[in-house]
Amino acid sequence: MSKPFAGKVAFITGVSSGIGAAAAELFAARGARIAAVARNVARGQATVERVRQAGGVAEFIQADVSDPEQIIAAVRRSQEVFGRMDMAFNNAGQTGVVGAFHEQTLEAWNDTIATNLTSVFVCMQEEIKIMLGQGGGAIVNNCSGAGVMGAPGLPHYTAAKHGILGISKVAAKEYGPHNIRINSICPGFIDTVQMNEFLGSDDARARVSAGIPMGKMGSPETIAKAAAFLCSDEADYISGDTMFVDGAFLCR
């Protein structure tokens, strides 16, 4: 594999499994040094070990992205280790408690907003500060189909994901003159542990897959490839965009 990211540093959140783990491994395989952020220490370190065993460079940084102070500390640690930040993939998030709109608690709302939206806002602030000082960079925010449509039972998650698209567009306009590109990805149904826990059964998986025009759920690696493309020089005139990677599910 060629090394288009050689000499670059990528800050990636949510690397303990799924999309984040796939992104850490792919970006490293393309030559990037990885600041690998996760809440779960054992699983985050396992991802870093896989990167290292494949010949890549990665540093594990433990942080719960629902806590802004931990995000700030994680970014600072990344700078201490690597000295720059060329790319960031703000991937960490959670679905939240499923329930009728009128029965959702304020606690569940606040927790889901903190983990999915406030975390991205704070990550972007800290990442942009670094990129301003070094002359540019690329940020990709992981969103969801819930960023453009309502997800019944998940008003907090839907609000957070709509918010990610909004703040991404604002930042893209503000920092385009500073050579900082900011884009979002809206994955469809992706075959991850978190998705399978959410669906709950093989029957639910089958029904979901049948409703996707391409007839299957996507892989974490597919989203990692999309993030890598948006961070690459091949996407040097793409900013403020929303990329749908969903097997045509949302276009119908």
Tell me the layout of helices and strands.
Blueprint: E1 9-13, H1 18-29, E2 33-38, H2 41-53, E3 57-62, H3 68-82, E4 87-90, H4 106-134, E5 137-142, H5 155-175, E6 180-187, H6 193-199, H7 202-210, H8 220-231, E7 242-245
Helix pairs in contact: 1-2, 1-8, 3-4, 4-5
Q: What is the name of the CATH architecture?
A: 3-Layer(aba) Sandwich
Spell out the helices and strands N to C. Answer: EHEHEHEHEHEHHHE
The SS-based structural class is alpha/beta
Separation of the first and last Cα atoms: 36 Å
Report the total helices: 8
The CATH topology is Rossmann fold
Task: Please sum up the structure shown.
This protein is of the alpha/beta class and 252 residues long.
